[in-house]
Amino acid sequence: MSKGRRAPSVATWFSDSGKGDIIMQEVKVPSSHLTRYTYYCCLQWNAGMNGGGYCGIQDHPDGKNYIFSIWDPEPHSMTPGKHIEAVFVGTGTLIERFGGEGEGLKSWNFTLGWETDRWYNMVVRRWDFEGHTRFGLWVHDETENRWHHLVTMDFPVMNVYFCTRTCCFVEDWHGSGENLRGAMFRNGFKRLIDGRWLPFGNGDFSVNQEPACEKYNNNFCAVTNEDLTSIFMQTGHPVIPLEGQGASCKLNVQATHKEPLIPPIEFEVTSSMETGVKWYVPESSTPQFSYTVKVNNKLIESGIDPYKREVCLHCTSGQVEVSLQDIVGRETTKCVNVKDKCAVNDKNGCFEEVK
């Protein structure tokens, strides 16, 4: 790579200051702005702090990649003898250590793939687990209406939240600034710890102009669409800034809604008998995060488990209540009667729904 041939990195920091447990944003790469060796980062959080990380999509020589990375914790703050671990690994997801700009754990996924001119919603949620903090990544392909859980990482420090402003960026990580690259971002939200949703509001746009980008340091641009609901960051030849746009500026971004337009989880109770209750969540539904099962209003079992689909009951009669919370905090409850004989026959079992 010749010196000074990278496209400058472009980034936007949003006005979502506050302590939160969920962050999300949608990203789309127009086919006209697809260039290999580009990282289109959708979410970056806690930079330089415990629990710092980022996620996004990448055009890599090996394919269309999803990345999720978390930097190592500060040694004095972590559980002694522990390190970051991937406690859930989705189909096709690869786990490995990374170095260079700090050290930590990263996940790759080339199997799932992504396409240009499609919106992808990336959702990251944190939760507490046995004195540690866990971070999970889910992705929604809006064209196919399918959700995917790519990875969950266990971070060996307790009570880590999304504390900083959230950032997105476009980066040439190889050195081909002669090519145009860019991405669109919209519908960013953070859920604060009091349950309120904070939209990603007005952003601070900046360009990282450095010797590695010397040839293309002035090839960048950032615009908002007509209704101010999305931003479009571009970098590399032949793009040029808008008139009067410098290497840093304000982007007037406005949310159209006070909270995410993501429907609550949908599921079916497929069997409710004296031995146990089972349920099914389709791929098109907002994914499950946690579950609670009660019989006659008495708690039988609950927990955080995106893949729990069955709970033992050991009762001969009564009303079963199954409540599922999805990854963005919505809850759906269904009630059925325990049956000693099938009320409804299907391939999954039997149940009688309480109307």
UniProtKB/TrEMBL annotation:
A Pfam family it matches: DUF3472
InterPro entries tied to this protein: DUF3472 (IPR021862)
Protein name: DUF3472 domain-containing protein
